Amino acid sequence: MRSSALPETSCGYLLQELQMIWDEVGEHQFEREKVLLDLEQECLEVYRRKVDRANISRARLHQELAESEAEFTHLLLSLGERSLPGRPEKMSGTLKEQLDSITPALREMRLRKEERVNQFRAVQAQIQKISAEIAGLSEYDDSSTTIIVNENDLSLKKIEEYQTELQRLHNEKNDRLQRVGKYIGTVHNLSAILGMESSMIITKVHPSLNELYGISKNISDNILAKLNSTVESLEEEKQKRLEKLHHLGKALTKLWNLMDTPYEDRRRFSHVTSLLSSSSIQVSNPGSLTHNIIEQAEAEVKRLDQLKASKMKELFLKKQNELEGICNNSHMEIPSQSEMDKLINLITSGEIDHADLLTSMDEQISRAKEEASSRKAIMEKVERWILARDEERWLEEYSTDENRYSVSRGAHKNLRRAEKARVIVNKIPALVDSLIAKTKSWEEERNKVFLYDEVPLLAMLEEYNMLRQEREEEKQRQRENKKVQIQVVVEQENVFGSRPGTSNRHLSNRSLNGGFNNAIPLNRRVSMSIQQSGSNSSNSATQGISFVTEGRKMRRQKMFARPSLVSQLRDETASVVSTFSGPLSP
Asked: In this entry, which stretches build a coiled coil (predicted)?
């Protein structure tokens, strides 16, 4: 078409024009063939160059297509995807058609890769930042840090691994922040209890822990170790101060008890004594273990120590009076004055431990109260026996009164009292027997002699029974003598006749008193009875209430003069016996 359209420019036309020129010139045939051969060679070279260019272009298209396919395949592998939706697995058509079909898919994969790389870079940046915070690099700069992303593995599985690592680091960071916050809270609490400045302590560990500085907290292992060490040191200080206050509280309580300090004075240090039963964990009130409180408690202990020596004598005398009161009320043995004087001298010279002495006195008072309680039932019967004896003595005196039946003022009251006294006196033997049984049981149980005003009670009761029996025998002899004397008087009256001026109502006191000449004196019997029970009374004295030194027990002299029950019994018996020297009751 081009040859027909442009005949002037076609090769055949030019060749004909060249033949015409050669014919006109008369060019030799050899030259003609040579020129034509050159023309053919030049045309061949032009065609070859065109073919070579076409081959090169085709090869380039093959290479581009291969590179695109390789890149596409690499992107699929790096992104962890099998294929791209919408792109056929097998391509057909010319090279340019194939290249045009893969180019959009390749562009899509490149966009996906870029997004995935950005995701990896963001996750890795956060991982590096949190790792730096955990490592203690508080001045971490995101801009100066190069994030290297492995583009050969951009799969979702890999990014999930990074996200898992990031979550783990987040959890670790939160855990460390919580631990740091807990440590800081503990430091605040302990500082408040101990009266310290918590901000200074926390800043000393690391400035970032103080919120006033406005920087992120350092949560490294080193900081956690320092915080833990700080908390442990504060706990140790808290324990030391609590132990010191325990010691001071016990000392205060001991001194208060020694000196009977009133409640008002004790209340000022109730916050110290209230800690005696508290452990270190239980103490949480702010300001409860400050240096000021410890210094105040130490000053109070020092002051009370200075007052203790001056008040010990007063306290000892008070407890001594209490002990003597218990002993006097229960008619038990009381300490001797010489022994008490020795103890007071020891207190004054400071050669004896005041606390041990008062503790010993308290123990003795406790033992005395316990023994008084055990003697209570017996002492009640002894009191009844003493009252019954008083009634018996009054009845004896009343029975010897010749005017007891006379009509006089108050005679009917004496008659009623005499009736009641006879009832009481008739119960004395049973009461005495019961007392003897209870006393023996008490002595067997405690393995000691029951003393009443330093005299064995059993000896007193047995002595009373003997005297009572002797009185009964004496009364019987007096009644027999009276009968004999009356009979002699009657016989004399029968022989000589009655004498108006004589009276048989008055008998000779001397003859009646003669019946007592053979009786054993009371003083001698009491002394014999006491001598027989001497070993028991000695044991009682050694087993009585000890007052300071156990093992140094001996019979002590009474502090206060008090009439003995035996001497009282002796006087009363003598008075009763003397009544028989007068007229006998009908």
From this structure: 44-71, 152-179, 217-244, 457-487
CB burial of 421-459 (b: ≥16 within 10 Å; e: otherwise) equals beebbeebeebbeebeebbeebbeeeebbbbbbbbbbbb
Q: Which range, 29-33, 227-231, 285-289, is most confident?
A: 227-231
Encoded tokens for 561: 């003069």
Residue 92, SS3? coil
Classify residue 332 by its DSSP letter. Answer: -
Model confidence pLDDT, tens digit, residues 163-214:
999 999 999 999 999 999 999 999 999 999 999 988 888 888 888 887 766 6
DSSP string, 105-134: HHHHHHHHHHHHHHHHHHHHHHHHHHHHHH
Other CB atoms closer than 10 Å to residue 312's CB: what's the count?
A: 21
Q: Which residues pair with 452 in a beta bridge?
A: 455
- On whether the CB atoms of residues 395 and 419 are closer than 8 A, the answer is no
- Cβ–Cβ < 8 Å for 450, 442: yes
- Residue 10 near residue 3 (C-beta atoms within 8 A): yes
The beta-carbon contacts of 527-530 under 8 Å, at least 24 apart in sequence, are 529/459, 529/462, 529/463, 530/455, 530/456, 530/459, 530/566
What is the widest separation between alpha-carbon atoms in the chain?
248
- Locate 380 and state its tokens: 């009640």
Confidence of residue 247 (pLDDT cuts 50, 70, 90): very high
The rounded distance, in Å, linking the Cα atoms of 577 and 584 is: 12
Name which of 290, 293, 292, 335 is nearest 317 in CA terms: 335
Please state, in angstroms and as integers, the Cα–Cα distance from residue 383 to each residue in 126, 305, 387, 418, 566, following that order. Answer: 100, 46, 6, 20, 15
Structural contact between residues 128 and 147, judged by C-beta atoms closer than 8 angstroms: yes
Q: How far is CA 122 from CA 31, 113, 163, 166, in A?
A: 80, 14, 10, 11
Asked if 556 and 335 touch (Cβ cutoff 8 Å), the reply is: yes
Q: Is residue 569 pLDDT above 80, yes or no?
A: no
For residue 451, give the 3-state DSSP assignment.
strand
Q: How many Å apart are CA 44 and CA 416, to the nearest integer?
A: 183
